[in-house]
Amino acid sequence: MTHDDVTAPRPDAADLISRGRAHLGIELGSTRIKAALVDDAGAVLATGSFAWENTLADDSWTYPMDEVWEGLAACFADLADAVRTRFDVPLTRLASLGVSAMMHGYIALDADGELLAPFRTWRNTYTSDAASLLSETFGQNIPLRWSVSHLLHAVLGGEEHVGRIAAITTLSGLVHRRLTGRSVLGVGDASGMFPISSASDAPDYDHELLERFAALDAVADVPWDLADLLPEVLVAGQDAGTLTEEGARLLDPSGTLEAGVLTAPPEGDAGTGMVATQAIAPRTGNVSAGTSAFAMVVLERPLATPREEIDMVTTPSGDPVAMIHTNNCTGDLDQWLGVFAQFAQLLGQDVDTEDLYARLFEAGAAGDADAGGVLSFNYLSGEHQTGVASGRPLLVRTQQASFTLENLMRAQLHGAFGALAAGMEVLLEEEKVGLDVMYAHGGIFRTKGVAQQVLADALRTPVALGASAGEGGAWGMALLAAHTAQLAEGKAASDGATTEALRRFLADEVFASQEVTTLEPTDAGAQGYADWLRGYRAALPVERLAGESID
Description:
Residues 286-484 form the Carbohydrate kinase FGGY C-terminal domain. Belongs to the FGGY kinase family. By secondary structure, this protein is of the alpha/beta class. The protein has a domain at 331-416 and 523-549. The chain is built from 19 helices and 23 strands. The strands form 7 sheets. Strands 17-18-16-15-21-22-23 form a 7-stranded mixed beta sheet, sandwiched between helices. Strands 1, 2, 3, 6, 13 and 14 form a 6-stranded mixed beta sheet that branches. A hairpin with a 3-residue loop joins strand 15 and strand 16. The two termini are 35 Å apart.
């Protein structure tokens, strides 16, 4: 988001902000920390951001903790500056706030709340032995990136810090803990740490599986019980504590922001994606497309069998969701677009970035339905959906390929969703999961109709795009914060923090007036993508060899 990515200001916006009636959502994503300030109905009043990148240190993808706190403060400062510029008021008080972040990974803390090992992100795929043992023990697929896989990996590796662990959490949980002093997690994010059981009225970690974990020979000598390490599970709308004075200074070192703000349960980027697209009912789904991609489908019945390609998580209200996750999506596409921007500069052309990207996307839309024999593997990192251990971005074409700008860009768009389409085939065609519509959000959909049509053709499913699709997870987190405030103030029905309460809030107050555009798959486009995907699968051995051969 930029400061221009806001809805038209309501006449009383300055007064609303001054009175502390706005809601703040912050999301720590893979490439940006983003903030969205909204009113009670989710209209965006102002935004802020801070750019950052992960680093590969000691064979682990990580973000330095100093940069987490510096980036958080810089993002809030950018938001506060936008508020002053647009409304001529300081950002002093808030009605509510919530923090979201990339899911999964490993954050281990000691008894004083200090980090015991560098933050290990979802991109790390060296936990295969631990994940395999857990999957066999639990009788369900446990992904490589889940927190419990990282924890067991550390145990199996005899890492020095294991005996001193007092708590584990995710990035959103860590930030929330520093802001409020509470070790809690929204159920959606918690479901990427350890399996959730929905057998009771209050979703929680699966106690039977916790007992199976405790019975593993590998953890027989550790001085802790996993159940004591995990954050408390909350559902959307529950009170997750208040912003402390220390937390307020962490977020706003200038001292302007007041403490005491109500907070929503911290969530993962998958959960905020579901909220940002209103995809929380059975037979609906959403795709969140960024550096990585999530496809989430809310289930109307359990899956027949565990599948390695499918992760079982939950909505922020605790309902079961099948997730297809890919480590790669728009990262390589963004780099190609950057090369074209450099070429324009080389020619002395001062081209607006948004306009350049739109033109290139539109060129891709004009390409052949099968991209003319051009294949793009966007693997900046390994890709578990297609069995690629170590990724190398790769562009390859047949000898008879029609290598044009249009087909090059078409292949880039196809490649952004390639691993996702492979995983979704398993879910929709083999598992026969019902899906009526897939909602999409993320920057790749900003050029009207292009990536949206490619995705519809790839999944053979209608894809809907709302006016807010480009706002992303920070907006979704702001909506969860507004929902929490609504329940706390008694403005919602008396059924409390439930799926129905969240559904009504989104349907009646946020999305009722939003324009939604739905594109159906076309016969030619769907067939073209299927042909392209067939070639993509056939060339996977080349991609795997590239990872083995090129340092």
